[in-house]
Every structure is written in C-alpha cells, then in structure tokens.
TrEMBL record:
Species whose genome carries this gene: Caballeronia cordobensis
Cited InterPro entries: KR_dom, NAD(P)-bd_dom_sf, Sc_DH/Rdtase_CS, SDR_fam
Family: Belongs to the short-chain dehydrogenases/reductases (SDR) family.
SUPFAM superfamilies registered for this protein in UniProt: NAD(P)-binding Rossmann-fold domains
Keywords from the named record: Oxidoreductase
Presence of the UniProt keyword Oxidoreductase in the record: yes
UniProt-recorded name of the protein: Short chain dehydrogenase
C-alpha cells in the first residue's frame, strides 16, 4: 500500500471517495465541518440525537450536490455508536474519517457546590461518548487500511478555569485518551489527533455569552473548517498523537 497517498492530488475534491462520520453534526462546529467535508467530495454521516437538525443538514448538503446520511445516535450508548458505523458501511461502503465532536457544556459553578449528576453527565458525553466513538471506529478504519480520528478537545484542558471544572476535566481526560489510542493504533495507519478550536459562537457557548480569556479569537463555526480540513487530508503516515489549536494563548 502507498501510505502517502491519502487524499493527495485530488484537486478541488480532496476528500473524493472518502467517508466521514461526524458526531454532533447537527449544528454548530460539527455542521460547518460536515458541509466542508461534503463540499470536498466526502460522503458524510452526520450523527446526533436531534433528527430535525440532522435532516436539515442532510437536505442542505444534498441541495449542494453532496452525499450525506442522518444517523440518530446517543454517543453515551455504545450499541448506538456501533450501529452508526454499521449504517455508514451499509450506505457508503466504509469509514475513513471520524470527527468525535459531540459534546456538552455543563452549567458552571464552584466544585464545592457543583451538581454531581451534571459532572457525571459531562463525563458520559465528553469522555465516554468520545471513547465509544473512537473505539467502535477502529474496526471499520482497519478495514480501509487506515484513516483519521479527530477528537474535539478544548483549550480549557490547559489551565484551571474556576467554575468550569467538569468540562475542563473531561477534556483533559480526552487528551490522554487521544494520545494513548494514537500509539495503540499507529501500526494500522490510523491517526488520532486533537482539534482545539478555542471560542466559537455556537449554542453551547450561548452565542458568545460565555466569558472567554481576554484577547481570544471569537470564531464562527466556519472558522474551524481549515484546520478540520488539514487534519482530514494528511497522509496516512502523517501526524498522530498531536494537538492542533486555533487559540491565541500559550500553554
Ligand atoms: N463552541 C466552543 O467555543 C467550543 C470550544 C471548545 C470546544 N468545543 C467543543 O466542540 C464540540 C462541538 O460543540 P459546539 O460548540 O458546536 O456545540 P453545539 O452547537 O451545542 O453542538 C453540540 C453537538 O453535539 C451533539 N450532542 C450532544 N450530546 C450528544 C449525545 N449524547 N449524543 C450525540 N450527540 C450529542 C448535539 O446534538 P444533540 O443535542 O441533538 O444530540 C450537537 O449536534 C464539543 O465537543 C465542544 O466541547 C466547543
């Protein structure tokens, strides 16, 4: 196998022939990346819990001449996630790129008084949901001879953020999951990298009402697309176990 040929020399459709699965693809950052991957030639499976949002994304992609499939899934349920990949294989023949993007922002508050159920729920979605999404992807990615696992991280994992402990801690654990899995599947040409987008105006951030570090770049979901495209188009022997960030602060 030529391990340097992933998505190279495909002109205006660098993802032609590829199949991308995007959890949290119904709105926000996932929706923007779903459109971009479809425009780049990939068949895209958009997955989340809200059918209406997923159906709207699929209609929009198809209206632009792309290929897409809506898949209703709760990433906290491993059987659901396995079924998502089964649908991707059934409809589009395999899986090449996975964006583990489904995530939950939890209401803040100091640890002393934090709602412990909300803490657990944050971990169920942000860590276990991503674990399910990555783990169940390995078999279909192996069948294609390799591929990309892109894990949606957060700059909040770099430094303590009082009042956001559950979210930041879940994303810090996700970073260790990313690095460990990357080493475990490296020989299968599966890359596992973290995408950190920094502040983006989405439903999760209350359309900009969350207080972000001063001087940060407040992005629209579309601003994350170039980095997501970069990660999806690296060669099979390209970067793995790395973190790629759009933030403006060190650390
Ligand atoms: N926006 C930011 O500033 C920012 C910064 C750093 C990192 N991030 C990360 O970026 C990712 C996307 O966030 P966003 O800002 O685009 O938020 P968003 O607009 O609220 O989108 C979140 C997506 O995740 C899906 N989701 C949530 N729980 C799910 C579950 N249990 N099963 C399946 N899908 C689920 C949601 O769909 P349903 O509710 O329909 O399931 C939705 O499609 C998250 O991982 C977030 O932590 C965001």
């Amino acid at each position: 196998m030529n391990t340097t040929s992933f998505a190279r020399d495909k002109g205006a459709a660098p993802l032609a022939g590829k199949v991308a699965v995007i959890t949290g693809g119904g709105r926000g950052i996932g929706r923007a990346i779903a459109h971009a991957y479809a425009d780049a030639g990939a068949a895209v499976v958009v997955a989340a819990r809200s059918s209406e949002e997923l159906d709207a994304v699929v209609r929009s992609i198809e209206a632009h001449g792309g290929k897409a499939l809506a898949c209703r899934v709760d990433v906290t349920d491993y059987a659901n996630v396995e079924a998502m990949y089964a649908q991707a294989v059934e409809h589009f023949g395999g899986v090449d790129i996975v964006l583990a993007n489904a995530g939950l922002g939890t209401p803040g508050g100091p640890i002393e008084t934090a709602n412990l159920d909300a803490w657990k729920r944050t971990f169920e979605v942000n860590l276990y949901g991503a674990l399910h999404t990555a783990r169940a992807a390995i078999a279909p990615l192996r069948k294609r001879g390799g591929g990309k696992l892109i894990m949606t991280g957060s700059g909040s994992r770099h430094r303590p953020m009082p009042g956001l402990s559950a979210y930041a801690t879940s994303k810090l654990a996700l970073w260790m999951l990313t690095q460990t899995l990357a080493i475990e599947v490296q020989d299968a040409n599966i890359s596992v990298n973290e995408l950190i987008q920094g502040p983006v105006r989405t439903e999760m951030t209350g359309f900009g009402k969350v207080a972000f570090p001063p001087g940060e770049w407040m992005k629209e979901p579309e601003d994350v697309v170039p980095l997501a495209m970069f990660l999806a188009t690296q060669p099979l022997v390209g970067p793995t176990a790395q973190s790629f960030s759009l933030m403006r602060r060190a650390g």
